[in-house]
Design brief:
The protein has helices spanning 19-22, 41-50, 62-69, 78-81, 101-113, 155-160, 209-212, 215-219, 235-238, 246-263, 265-272, 281-284, 290-298; strands spanning 120-123, 126-129, 133-134, 139-143, 149-153, 165-167, 176-177, 182-188, 191-196, 201-206, 228-232. By secondary structure, the chain is α+β, with helices and mostly antiparallel strands. A hairpin with a 4-residue loop joins strand 3 and strand 4. The two termini are 32 Å apart.
């Protein structure tokens, strides 16, 4: 099965009318940031271009225009104006959305709902989610709406360490993840393994559910078992050297061959007959050695 490799893969933005267009400042511009105006290059450029103009129609930014256009007692929430929500809602923060709990809650809801079930391809007995980028240490990165990145483990390493638990370490909300550096860990039977961060960026969310229910990370590693949501420092740069499409398939086949070599010819013959990889490989084969598995497959 062949997959094309071109640019960053991710989700399409459902809404497309820029808030500057909604405000009547520009005739046509589409939004590709899911109304995250505070991190939008077009918004910053418009603010610079319109700075110093006296009229509301060409205000210094959309927030100023909205403040001048709508009466203070009945100002509609910007998400009502853009059509993001249907029910009436008054803005109580004077269009200072960065300080609005409702605005942040809406983003959190959309981040959760935007996560769709991926399509899979089976490679050497292991599911590989399509449209994901893979790091050599068996973590994946998925680019989602607004340019955020979701991170998790692939099924290979979750079957390798079938009883492992997630330890977030210092990577809590607001902390910085550095590509190529050890960021968090997994533990199993008094063993610990550090994990290399696949990209650089600021942590926006940590999946608290897998701390309470580690099985989720193993049973559904590409979907509900995700680990972090991160705002990448530089999306294109962060994705360099990660595997995608056909490259990820070839890589997974090589990783499986390494595992079979560790087990010897009998295991290789069993795998050739189509036998399913067992869950908790380490638990059933402790003689292989924790450190050997960690060094070979997690690169730490």
């Amino acid at each position: 099965m062949k997959t094309k490799k071109k640019g960053i893969r991710g989700f399409q933005v459902v809404e497309d009318e820029c808030i500057w267009m909604k405000a009547g400042v520009v005739n046509l511009h589409t939004c590709n940031k899911v109304y995250d105006c505070f991190d939008c290059k077009f918004d910053k450029a418009m603010t610079r271009a319109m700075g110093g103009k006296p009229t509301a129609a060409i205000a210094s930014n959309w927030a100023v225009y909205f403040k001048k256009t709508y009466d203070g007692a009945s100002r509609p929430c910007r998400h009502v104006v853009t059509g993001r929500i249907q029910q009436p809602k008054i803005c109580t923060h004077n269009y200072e959305c960065q300080d609005c709990a409702f605005d942040q809650m809406l983003d959190d809801i959309e981040i959760s709902e935007a996560q769709s079930v991926p399509e899979y391809i089976n490679v050497s007995g292991f599911d590989l989610a399509q449209g994901y980028y893979y790091h050599d240490g068996h973590t994946w990165v998925r680019i989602e709406h607004g340019g955020i990145a979701r991170i998790g483990f692939d099924q290979f390493v979750m079957k390798l360490f079938g009883k492992a638990k997630f330890v977030s370490g210092f990577l809590e909300i607001g902390s910085h993840m550095e590509k190529g550096q050890q960021g968090w860990a997994i533990t199993q039977d008094n063993h610990l393994a550090n994990i290399i961060s696949p990209i650089s960026g600021t942590v926006l969310s940590v999946n608290q559910r897998i701390k309470q229910n580690p099985d989720l990370m193993h049973d559904d590693p590409y979907n509900d078992g995700w680990l972090f949501i991160v705002e990448p420092d530089a999306p294109l740069k962060s994705l360099r050297k990660l595997k995608y499409g056909d490259d990820s398939i070839s890589w997974m086949e090589k990783e499986n061959r390494k595992l079979m070599d560790m087990m010897g010819p009998e295991y290789a013959n069993l795998a050739a007959t189509g036998g399913e990889p067992i869950k908790d490989f380490f638990g059933y084969n402790p003689e292989i050695g924790w450190d050997r598995l960690v060094t070979t497959f997690l690169k730490t």
